[in-house]
Design goal:
By secondary structure, the protein is of the alpha+beta class. 19% of the residues lie in helices and 29% in strands.
Length: 275
């Protein structure tokens, strides 16, 4: 369920809109920061007290079923790194201990440790070159302007790559979208219900391209979408371009689910891809 409340940076989330479930911990999503939490609820029927503030402007989204709360950013907001964000980074250069990566243009480089990959050693670590892409998670963000942003491709607690295909992205094509659409795509991918967050475009392509081998997709909250079709030859290239084209057009025109389905069919016809 989505609340119509609009939050600005520093605003506190009203306690009466928080999920009432006490059987599971509250999941705090992007755009919010936990200030403090009362350890014991006053009663079994009342939730623990949380003090939560917004770190950027957006619409407050409350999911009672998942016991989660987050902020949906405005579509064209610039990306502000937040710990645990999934991002697509581009390698700029390598130093003795780090890959220096670009998250967004004209911003300080993010640091990705040379050994921040599952099972990586000095001999087996990925040898990423300038311009190559990597799917990573924001590990930490310093305080203040110009501070370091650190990325990782493993779970620090286990040393294992997390579900979701973290690591180098080989092949495929990269497309730029708004941070708002990126957030919606990620929300839709985490939901089992078709059309979550008003996005059906990737589901529609999945159905129509299944006979062509399907495709892989990685979405970064920094407004990047990587697409790689599994087919071979011209069909794979055309299908990849078709997906990117539809994402860009959907983003620019703010299409609803029915319009997205029509757009997919139209673009596939224009690209002469038989499905």
């Amino acid at each position: 369920m989505t609340s119509p409340s609009i939050l600005l940076p520093g605003d506190h989330v009203p306690s009466d809109v928080l999920p009432s479930t006490t059987s599971a911990p509250l999941r705090i999503g992007p755009g919010l920061r936990l200030l403090y939490q009362q350890q014991e609820p006053q009663s079994k029927t009342s939730p623990s007290a949380h003090a939560i503030s917004a770190t950027h402007a957006g619409l407050l989204s409350v999911d009672q079923k998942r016991n989660a709360i987050s902020v949906l950013s405005f579509p064209n907001r610039r990306y502000i790194p937040t710990p645990n964000d999934l991002v697509i980074a581009q390698v700029h250069h390598t130093s003795q201990d780090y890959f220096h990566c670009i998250l967004t243009p004209h911003t300080p480089h993010a640091l990705l440790g040379l050994l921040a990959f599952e099972g990586a050693t000095k001999k087996t670590r990925p040898m990423l070159k300038q311009g190559e892409l990597v799917y990573a998670r924001v590990l930490s963000v310093g305080v203040g302007a110009g501070t370091e942003i650190e990325l990782t491709c493993v779970n620090p607690a286990t040393g294992k790559a997390e579900p979701g295909g973290l690591g180098p992205l080989t092949g495929g094509m990269l497309f730029d979208v708004s941070t708002g659409l990126a957030a919606r795509l990620m929300k839709a991918s985490s939901s089992s219900a078709e059309g979550a967050a008003g996005v059906v475009i990737l589901d529609e392509f999945g159905k129509k391209l299944e006979s062509k081998g399907g495709f892989e997709v990685a979405v970064g909250r920094n407004g990047k979408v990587w697409v790689d079709c599994s087919g071979s030859g011209d069909i794979a290239v055309k299908a990849t371009i078709a997906i990117g084209r539809c994402l860009r057009e959907m983003d620019e025109r703010n299409l609803d689910p029915n319009e997205q389905r029509k757009l997919v069919s139209k673009v596939l016809r224009e690209m002469k891809i038989d499905v």
